[in-house]
Design brief:
Blueprint: E1 6-7, E2 17-18, E3 21-22, E4 30-31, E5 49-51, H1 61-69, E6 74-76, H2 83-95, E7 99-102, H3 111-121, E8 127-134, H4 141-154, E9 159-163, H5 178-189, E10 199-201, H6 215-229, E11 235-240, H7 253-265, E12 270-274, H8 302-319, E13 322-330, E14 339-340, E15 347-349, E16 356-363, E17 369-376, E18 383-389, E19 395-399, E20 406-409, E21 415-420, E22 425-431
């Protein structure tokens, strides 16, 4: 297990230079040690996933071409198919440089059946992993972990897929400690951080009554902090791309953008769109159209979906190796229980009433260089914003959303002025460190 320490000195923010020496205020404890290098062959970019990809009737070259064209990496299948059907899905995924999580009923069978399942798929280049369970209750963790560990022992290179409930699920109302009993309990049951490919949960913010649910921030921040406490486990979460009657609204382009960039600010390395295709309605849930409608046609969300995925991939080679150490909020409507931007942080909005997220990121492969993801929290308004930059900053660069390269930002008398679309985030790096 990787070890990351806490100290009482903050590397988030620095005071003024005195005789060339940077004064470090004693404010917020912060994780400062770099994680151990990943072994060769590990992933080097964000993994972009889709939940509810084309069902068997729509497993066609045309449908898979649309997925690949939109920069999708991972398809999450949660319907049981035969081995032959799964092989067709894996072939089409491989041929387009994608991978798929497949669901084979043998995962729930005897040890011999499970071994047969893994042996059938593990050498396929289109395999991403094996579906086990979406949203296990606390009572199901032991069962899910047993399958997880059996699969891991047979195939440590692919994902045994389990996604956790958020803390407001009804399962946690009877004295169950969500963080320690459920999240940490899950990590412990699968053998700790070394066996955890991604720590995953779902939380959707765009409510049917038109509001934004602030519990979204608490869920993502807990996920971020638990992952760090366990040695910087990579995290996954679900982006909302459809509505559910009486519960959630169908998001628009600006809301998709904010969902993406706020998740990146909180350090998500494997964002998954819920959903890609539109599921059939059930007894309990009536779904709006998602990115692809029930007939397999693109909806109005496909173009922003494709655009945002391209931006995530361009930024991803940088973001994938960064630690999201803390996420600050600014403005008059800061939700309770989140971190407000401290006065000594080295990037300050000229107007402190602007509603923003500012994430402090560390790039350890660059020697612990400071980066910041700044996100416009307005879902309706574009903003031109001026920021005050600390005097010790000598250089400021922006990571391009099209090329991933760094472009210099000119600091004029300690200020920069930047424009943001509704919900947009922008990634900046700073020197000397």
């Amino acid at each position: 297990m990787k070890i990351i320490s806490l100290i009482a000195f903050s590397l988030l923010s620095f005071g003024a230079c005195v005789d060339g020496t940077i004064e470090i205020p004693e404010d917020t404890p912060i994780l400062i040690e770099a994680p151990e290098p990943e072994p060769p062959g590990e992933l080097d970019n964000l993994v972009i996933g889709v939940y509810w990809p084309p069902t068997w009737e729509q497993v066609t070259d045309a449908q898979f071409d649309m997925l690949a064209d939109a920069h999708v990496d991972m398809l999450q299948y949660v319907i049981t198919y035969t081995e032959a059907q799964n092989m067709t899905i894996l072939d089409k995924s491989r041929d387009r440089g994608m991978r798929s999580i497949i669901f084979d009923a043998r995962a729930y069978g005897s040890d011999a059946e499970l071994a047969d399942m893994v042996n059938a798929y593990r050498s396929h280049a289109g395999l991403g992993g094996y579906y086990i369970k979406d949203e296990p209750s606390p009572a199901e963790l032991d069962w899910a972990a047993a399958i997880y560990n059996k699969i891991y022992e047979l195939d440590a290179d692919h994902i045994p897929h389990v996604n956790l409930f958020p803390s407001f699920a009804t399962h946690f109302t009877e004295g169950i400690d969500y963080k320690n009993d459920y999240m940490q309990g899950w990590i412990n049951r699968v053998g700790g951080a070394a066996r955890m490919k991604f720590l995953s949960l779902d939380v959707y913010p765009f409510m049917a009554d038109g509001t934004f649910n602030p519990v979204y921030y608490h869920e993502l921040d807990r996920l971020r902090s638990v992952a760090l406490e366990n040695g910087d486990i990579r995290t996954s979460a679900y982006l909302q791309s459809l509505g559910v009657e009486g519960a959630y609204r169908r998001p628009n382009e600006h809301e998709l953008r904010y969902n993406v960039y706020s998740m990146l600010a909180y350090g998500i390395k494997y964002p998954v769109w819920f959903t890609y295709c539109t599921p059939d309605n059930t007894v309990n849930e009536t779904f709006t159209e998602a990115i692809i409608d029930r007939d397999g046609n693109k909806t109005d969300l496909y173009v922003p979906f494709k655009t945002l995925n391209g931006e995530m991939k361009a930024l991803g080679s940088k973001l994938f190796v960064m630690q999201s150490q803390i996420v600050y909020h600014t403005g008059e409507g800061v939700p309770s229980g989140v971190e407000s931007l401290p006065a000594e942080y080295f990037v300050q909005p000229d107007n402190p009433n602007e509603d923003l997220l500012i994430a402090q990121l560390k790039n350890w492969p660059e020697g612990g260089r400071n980066y910041a993801m700044i996100v416009n929290k307005s879902l309706t308004e574009a903003k031109e914003l001026t920021f005050n930059i600390a005097g010790w900053i000598t250089d400021m660069d922006e990571v391009s959303k099209t090329t991933g390269s760094e472009n210099p930002i000119t600091i004029n008398e300690g200020k920069v002025t930047l424009t943001f679309m509704p919900g947009e985030g922008r990634l900046f790096g700073f020197k000397p460190f």
